[in-house]
């Protein structure tokens, strides 16, 4: 049985929604792993934080809120982590605040 275009799109939207939920639920794991690997090689927390925020924020680049969330997170959340402490809970809270702020605009 072949799926028509609309049925296939619905399946893709559902799959992407589930993926986005999974990715957002794993922000702490993604960020900690990314940040730890980065500071070992680059030794500089802020550029590592920016790079990891770009990698771990779960909003798709095609989403209209992506740029707002990324800009906000990079400017407000990238100086929280240190080489000794990624402070993932604080970073995640900061990113969530950015997300809420962007949704209001």
From TrEMBL:
Print the keywords alphabetically. Answer: Signal
The record ties this protein, via InterPro entries, to: THNL (IPR038975)
Signal peptide range equals 1-25
Q: What is this protein called?
A: Thionin-like protein 2
Tell me the organism: Nelumbo nucifera (Sacred lotus)
- Tell me the organism's taxonomic lineage: Eukaryota, Viridiplantae, Streptophyta, Embryophyta, Tracheophyta
């Amino acid at each position: 049985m072949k799926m028509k275009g609309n049925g296939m799109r619905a399946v893709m939207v559902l799959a992407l929604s589930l993926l986005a939920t999974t990715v957002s639920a794993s922000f702490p794991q993604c960020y900690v792993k990314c940040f730890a690997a980065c500071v070992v090689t680059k030794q500089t927390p802020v550029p590592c934080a920016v790079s990891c925020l770009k990698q771990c924020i779960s909003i798709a680049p095609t989403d209209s809120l992506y740029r707002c969330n990324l800009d906000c997170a990079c400017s407000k959340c990238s100086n929280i982590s240190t080489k000794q402490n990624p402070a993932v809970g604080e970073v995640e809270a900061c990113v969530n605040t950015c997300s809420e702020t962007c949704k209001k605009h």
